[in-house]
Amino acid sequence: MRKYFITSMIILSAATLVTNCGKKDDKKDTYTVTGSGSGKQEVPANMSNGTSTVTGSYRLGVRILQFTVNWTGLTTNATMMHFHGPADMGVNAPVLIPITGFTSATSGTYSGVDTFTVDQEAALLAGKLYYNVHTTTIPGGEVRAQLSATHD
Q1: What is the rounded CA–CA span in Å between residue 145 and residue 35?
Q2: How big is the chain by its Cα radius of gyration, in Å?
Q3: Per-residue pLDDT tens digits for 79-118
Q4: Helix (H) or strand (E) holding 59
């Protein structure tokens, strides 16, 4: 009986070791994405009292960004939102990923999911993406937030 118990424990231990060897630690592949926006970060800067935030998580390998954007105090309703890049703070860049489906309002929250290309991922991880909100009052962009990706 004891021999059967020891053999069973060895087999169970080996099976546990084998099944856990192939598992990846998802935390190693996850980044926290943040950004705080204002009119002063737009290029050129503007005098808007509006603000915005971006929070989310980015997964390497699958290149997926899950994000939430918040905006408040805009001069008029939001008309467009985008992720732009690659660009350092203070430099404009083309739209990389349009954000659609948000509520056109002076304040709001929107959550979304986007799949990035390899180049977009490289720009995000290098701190060279930004998010901005456009309005009819300031069509070039009323608030802008440079994104930061921090490894969890």
Answers
A1: 5
A2: 22
A3: 999 999 999 999 999 999 999 999 999 999 999 999 999 9
A4: strand 51-59
